[in-house]
Amino acid sequence: MIIKQLSVFLENKTGRLNEVTQLLGNAGINMSAFSVADTSEFGILRVIVTEPEKALLILKEADFSARLTDVVCLNSPNEPGALARALNILATENVVIEYLYAYSMDETSANIVLKPDNIEKCIEVFHAHQIDLVKASDMYKI
Amino acid sequence: MIWNEKIECAGREEMRAIQSERLKDTVQRIYHNVPSYRQKMQEAGLVPEDIKSVDDLVKLPFTLKTDLRDNYPFGLFTVPMSEIVRIHASSGTTGKPTVVGYTRKDLSTWAEMVTRALCMAGVHREDIVQVAYGYGLFTGGLGLHYGCENLGASVIPISGGNTDKQLQLMEDFGTTVIACTPSYSLHLGEELKAKGIDKSRLKLRVGIFGAEPWTENMRKEIEASLGIKAIDIYGLSEIMGPGVSCECEYQTGMHIMEDHFIPEIINPETLQPVPAGEIGELVFTTITKEGIPLIRYRTRDLTRLIYDKCECGRTLVRMEKCKGRSDDMLIIRGVNVFPSQIESVLLEMSETSPHYLIIVERDGNLDTMKLMVEVQEQFFSDEIKQLEALRKKITHRLSSTLGISVDVKLVEPKTIERTAGKAKRVIDNRKL
User: What is the dotted CATH code of the domain comprising B332-428?
Assistant: First the structure.
C-alpha cells in the first residue's frame, strides 16, 4: 500500500525542472503523477515514477538532492463530495495531512496522493472504512 | 586646535626616545606576566634586556589574532582582574570573540587619544556630538563617548540604528558632529532627502567616520549629502579602539598616536619590514597599555606610512586609508566577519555541509550579506515547513554568532563552485 514517491529539491532557477524530466525520460522512466510545491526561494518536485529506486540513483548521480518519501494513494469515485468523505475520515481519526495532490483517471475515478504524518495509522483508518488504496505496483505502472 | 602640542608636534628624535623608553618597559611587563609571549621570546633566544630601543623592535616575535583566541578570555592580560575596569570584545576568527581589558589608566589614555582625534577633526567643546556607533562590547560607542566628554563637548549617546530618531534629535538638538560608520552616514543622508528635510535646517558640520573601509568617492558623496566635512578615524579593539589614528582637517592620512603605539609596515608574505613609503601590512606595538599590551600585533590592514610633516603642524606619522586586508575578514555594517566563523557554525550544525558562499552587496547604502548553503541529502526533507525551519535555524545561529543579520538561501548540492586550491567563499559586490 505504501508508495515510494520521488522528492527532489529544486532551486527557483530556469531549466531545473526541465533537467529532471529529461534525465528521467532518457532513462525510460515514466511519470504517473507529478506535483511541484514552491516557495519564493525553492521548490520541491514530487513525482510517482515507474522505477523509483532507479530514478533516485539517476538524480543523485546528477547531483540533485533527492529522496524517496512514503505516501499513499487512494482511489476515489470521480463525483462531488468524494474527496470530502475521505478527508473527513482522516480528520475524525486525527491523521494529519502534510500535503496531497490529485488527478482524475477518467469519468468514474480519481487518484489522490497523500502524505500523512503517520502512514501506518492512515492505512489502518482507510481499511477500517473500506476505502480503496492503490497498490504500489499498480501505481507505478499507470 | 592641537590638544597635546608637545607630543603631537614633537621632533622625530624626541618621539623615538619616548617610544624606546616605553617599549623597554612594555617588553619587561609582558615577559614577566604573559607566559605564552615569554615562551615566544625564549624560542627566539631573546630576553627583555635585548630590547634597547625602537630599532630592536624587529627582533621581537609577532602577536596574532589567534594568540588572543588561544588565550581566551583573559590569558594575555598583564594585570590582575582587580585592576581591570572595562572589558570589550570583537569578532574572533571562529566562535570565540577577541577579548580585551582596560585598566583605569588605559581608559584615560584612550579618552585622551579620542580627544586628540576630535581636535584633529576640528571638533571643540561647544560642539554637540551625536554618537551613533553601537554602545556595548563594540568599542565604537563608548570610545567616542569618553573622548567627547574629556574634550568637554556635549554627547548624545544615541547608539546605532533607529534612523528616524537620529534625524529627529539631529534637528531638535542642533547636533553639530555625527560619529558613525560611513555607510550609515550615507543612509542618514538618503533618509533626510526622502523625508524632505532640508539640510539647512541642520547644524551638522563634521562627521567622524570609521569601523569600515571607505573611499574618497564615498567621502565626496557624504560631504555633499550632509553638508559636512567627513573625517576618517581608525582603530581596532585589540590595540585600543577608535582613535588609534585620525585625520586632521587636511584629510591627507590619519595621524597615529605614536606615543602610545609604534606602527610598522611589513610584507605579509616575508614578514620583513617594507621600504619606507611602500604598502604592506600594518603592525602595532602598544607601549603604554596596561590591561593587554600587545607586541607587534598584525592588524591585517594594508596601508602605507607617511612621515612628512603635515600642513596642520603635527609631526605624528600618518597612515593612508586602508587599501584592503591581508586576510579574508569582511567588514559589514561596521561588524567584522570572518568566513571561518560561518564555517564553524555550519560545522556545528549536523544538518549542514561546510559548502557555502557569502555574497555581500550594497543595497542602497547598507551592506547586506547573503549566505548560500547547499541542501544535502541527509537534511533534505520533502516538506516545505521542515526546510523553512532549517533555514530559520541556520539564520538564527549565524545572526547570534556574527552579530548581524544574514539572509540564508538554500541551494542545490554541488552548485557552489569547488576549486582545487583555496575555496572561494566570498563574492563581494560592493563597489568601494
Answer: 3.30.300.30
Mean pLDDT of B382-408: 89
Query: Which residues of chain B are within 8 Å of residue A119 when distances are taken between CB atoms?
Result: none
Coil, strand or helix: which one is B246?
Answer: strand
pLDDT tens-digit series, residues B187-209: 899 899 889 988 889 999 999 99
CA distances from A96 to A100, A114, A116 (A): 11, 10, 6
Q: Which of B383, B388, B412 sits opposite A98 (nearest CB)?
A: B383
Between strands A97-104 and B407-411, the pairing is unpaired
Domain that holds residue A131: 70-141
Residue B377 is nearest to which of A41, A67, A69, comparing CB atoms? A67
B376 lies within 8 A of chain A by CB: yes
Tell me which of 3.40.50.2000, 3.30.420.40, 3.40.50.880, 3.40.50.12780 is the CATH number of domain B70-327: 3.40.50.12780
Cβ–Cβ gap B414/A69 under 8 Å = no
- ipTM beyond cut 0.90: no
A98 touches chain B (CB under 8 A): yes
Tell me the sheet residues that pair with B361: B368
Which CATH number fits the domain that encloses residue A41?
A: 3.30.2130.10
Name, in order, each residue with C-beta under 8 angstroms of A12's C-beta and a sequence gap of 6 or more.
A38, A40, A41, A42, A43
How far is the CA of B135 from the CAs of A104, B216, B219, B356, in angstroms? Answer: 64, 27, 24, 32
User: What is the model's pLDDT at position B21?
Assistant: 98
For residue B401, the model assigns a pLDDT of 85
Q: Which residues pair with A93 in a beta bridge?
A: none
Backbone angles phi, psi at A70, to 5 degrees: -75, 125
Q: CB distance A63–B412 less than 8 Å?
A: yes
Minimum mean pLDDT among A39-48, B254-263, B421-430: which range?
A: B421-430
Does B380 touch chain A if contact means CB atoms closer than 8 Å? yes
Name the β-bridge partners of B350. Answer: none
- DSSP alpha helix (H) spans, B155-195: 163-172, 182-194
CB contact under 8 A, A65 and B413: yes
Give B374 to chain A, closest Cα distance, Å.
9
Q: What is the pLDDT of residue A125?
A: 93
- Torsion sign, CA atoms B96, B102, B106, B108: positive
Whose CA is closest to B369, among B331, B410, B400? B331
Q: Is the pLDDT of residue B422 over 60?
A: no
Helix (H) or strand (E) holding B391: helix B384-402
A7 and A45 assigned to the same domain:
yes
C-alpha A96/C-alpha A93 separation (Å) is 9
pLDDT above 70 (res B172): yes
CA distance B182 to B205: 15
